[in-house]
Amino acid sequence: MDFFRQHILTIVAFWPVAGMLVLLFFNKENKTLIRLWANAVLIVGFLISLPLWFWFDRANSDQMQFVENVRWIQTLGANYHVGIDGISLLLVLLTTLLGPLAVLSSWEAIDTRVKEYYVFMLMLQAGMLGVFISLDFFLFYVFWEVMLVPMYFLIGVWGGPRKLYAAIKFFLYTLVGSVLLLLGILALYFIYPQIAAQQPEIAAQFGTGPTFDVLAFHAIAPQLTADFQFWIFLAFLIGFAIKVPMFPFHTWLPDAHVEAPTAGSVILAGVLLKMGTYGFLRFSLPILPDATKYFVPLMVALSIIGIVYGALVAMMQPDMKKLVAYSSVSHMGFVMLGMFALNPNGLNGSIIQQINHGISTGALFLIVGMIYERRHTREISQFGGISNVMPVFAIVFLIMTMSSIGLPLLNGFIGEFTIMMGALQEQLWWAVAGGAGIVLGAAYMLWLYQRTMLGKVENPANQKLLDMNFREIVTIVPLIVMAFWIGLYPAPFFEVLEKPVNKIVAKVRPDFFQGAPRLNAETGAPR
Amino acid sequence: MAQFFQMQDIGAIVPELELAVFGMFLLVFDLMVQTKRRLGYVALGGIAISAYFLIRLWGVEFTAYGGALILDPFSTFFKFIFLIAAAMSIAISLKYLDIERENHGEYYALILFATMGMMFMAGAVDLITLYIGLETMAIATYVLVGFLRSNQRSNEASMKYFLLGAFSSAILLYGMSLLYGISGSTRFDDIAAALSSRPVTDPISLMAMITLSAGMFFKIAAVPFHQWTPDAYEGAPSSITAFMSVAVKAASFAMMVRIFMIAIYPLRPQWVAILGAVSVLTMTTGNIAAITQSNVKRMLAYSSISHAGYILIGFIAGNETGLTAVALYLLIYTFTNIGTWALIVALRRKDVIGEHIDDLAGLYFKHPTAAVLMLIFLLSLAGIPPTAGFIGKYYLFAAAIETNHNVLAVIAVLNAAISLYFYFRIVVSMFMRDATEKTGLTFAPGLTMALGVAVIFTMWIGIYPDPFIALARQAVPLGF
């Protein structure tokens, strides 16, 4: 047990890899066994990640916990350094929760090349978990890139008609962003020894040689010149903003989502996009505080454009999946808006909204996937009155629609409300613009629900649709439970977030807790 | 000056001598043996013995032949690269030459002679030694490129390669003669001393530098002197292309390190500007031209051009990180690229030329392991972790950032992203298209061994590169 407790993060992250290695020896014809195995691996993966929630020391939630730090590439100063604080705790658990659900949803949908499919799913899961636990920038980068390959194959092999285009577009976009990120990492790597040479306390803690340690970079943040921060922030911005995706880097997302198989979309929306926002939270904000403030106007503007633009485009989509995909752009705009309000409310809401988006949008993709499996079309005009033939499905869809548009008692409300509070604390018009997004969000989601679910069944093909089966209900129930939990009693989540968020705010705006003025909307802060 | 020849000088060239003896022995043996494949095993044995002597020389520093040749970790490191490349090229040739019906003893002997020439290039600190090594390598390679006597493309490739190679050697020689004129010596350190005593803008020094650089750009296939590469790489027997793209390139880079970092180092401000432009042009042209190729051999030829562009970054950085990056990158590139070419060689079967991207269609369904290996090699060429190629690229980019060549670094990383596009055209063909009748591979024990070695090192260097980085660092002394 001690061993488990000391190495829990490694075990959680590499467990899917172990499962994948075993899976390689299965006979590829034995599809049921392969499916059972992959599901079992990820369910166990979720169970072994649960102790993180219970063992997590909430009194020190801003400290890295379950830390392991082993030398890896000594010649470069790269270590196997993992650990989580409150923010990464939630994202890790979101990943381990969505992983098995995504895999379970593909039980019937994926019938060709089954073994490879699950191999890639397991690889992907490990890569994503690795990203959230890495405290070494080199290690982070390796995980960050490693998961591109399985995602590429998931879209490219099991995707829709334009899968090859969507897959390579996804890969190239992300790769362009991540190689620039690498250059930013390298610049920090080389500046560290120069700063450590002048700062004995930092040198005593992290050594004088070059390092990739994220905590060391956090420590040198105040010493970085504004000009240096500006360039690094720009490199990080492109890397992370493509992943989020922020307007105008979002164009890969609708293609990837529409072409990807259901499980791919769930993972993509639920977890992959959070890697971008997590990158901002973990690296850009605490390491580059001056540049962060300088970029606030741009970031907020892009977020608001993303919110409104995503919502407007979503409204006009004839394809359900595309609609949900564009709604992701809008929701991620909210996440970014809250983050760059740079106050505790905004950041808390931003992180909660990341979790919410993983739950609601993940569920919506599952729902679209279920209807697609029955009708093999996602055209909204093909549907109508489905609630008459699929009542359970209609209820589930309704709950998730409400969750997505932020109805009180459900999770979306908590996230959006907190973000709006954060935005309002800084600038009134930020909140107004965000509010417009909420209204539009309600419009397109309710309109979608009305067109597909309500009214009479007009299309004869919809007459005999089967309602959700047991497997599908099992897939969606955990998400409904989570939606209600966060909606009714979000305190446990805010509890683990409070300290790490305050720490970030204190780093970016050291004067905030002394009752500092609001952010300057035009200039943010002097560069 | 020290006495020109001393008995212990022979000790410095034992590995080379051993290869020469084996090469000549092979020529004689060729007359007596009917199964030519056995000669390949003999050649492999020769390389193994040479490697054994080389290991014993690791760490030794010794200047032999009155300063004409130097034995240092740098030369030893590169000699290892040549031997590895030669051994793997021979291993993948054994069956291939039978299929091409051109299995002759000279083939193996020529590879050994070429390798010997490279080893002299890596150790040369004198223009004459360097040039003789270079020509030994080059002439053997011209013959090898045209080794498929009845094949028109092979002959054409050989002719082009020979004409342009001879031409570039002449230009190189012209630069060398100017250097001799300036310094009155053929030794690199004398040349450097003479150059540094002249004004920076001295036209004769510049003339010497420019001609010398042009000659070397030909050898490493840098833009704008790259046009011979696609034709030569496409026409040559695939196993020889593998050898050329790795060993010949590594030898040319080893020569470049010595010349640029010692002989014409005083002119560094001038040549850095030239190399910067050439590097950007080379990687960009190579990558963009590769996108439209549908012949895999041609595509990989352009890809190897772009890799030369990346490696030049190491020279531009010019510090310890940069030169370590050059050495490390070439080592990594050896394993990865020979692995890739081994699979191209395997595509060649009786009646199937196996060079078109369509010939790889659905390879995954017929040979899953081979397709996955190819995927690993291609990811490594594109520089995606956790493969060795990432470590190589990482090191080059790190060198650029460390020396504040930020724009160059940005161009280089964007190029790395572009390159993924055409590498993944091969992946798409292998994994996402249905197999055709033409799809298939020929395997032979030698080829399988080479593939295994290539993939083990590609993954090993990718996941735990420590020992290899340490070796490369040792190979690049701070003295440069």
Brief account:
The complex is a heterodimer of chains A (527) and B (480). Chain A has 527 residues and is mainly α.
Keyword list:
heterodimer, A: 527 residues, mainly alpha, two-stranded antiparallel ribbon, 22 helices, 74% helix, globular, B: 480 residues, 2 strands
Query: Rounded to an integer, what's the Rg of chain B over CA atoms?
Result: 21 Å
Number of H- or I-type helical stretches of chain A: 22
Query: How many beta-strand elements of chain A?
Result: 2
**N-C termini distance of chain B:** 23 Å
Describe this structure in words.
- The complex is a heterodimer of chains A (527) and B (480).
- Helices cover 74% and strands 3% of the residues of chain A.
- Chain A is built from 22 helices and 2 strands.
- Chain A has a two-stranded antiparallel ribbon with strand order 1-2.
- Chain A is globular.
- By secondary structure, chain B is mostly helical.
- Chain B has one domain (9-475).
- Chain B is 76% helix and 1% strand.
- Chain B has a two-stranded antiparallel sheet.
- The longest helix of chain B is centred in the middle third of the chain and has 32 residues, at 152-183.
- At the A-B interface, helix 6, helix 7 and helix 8 of A face helix 17, helix 18 and helix 20 of B.
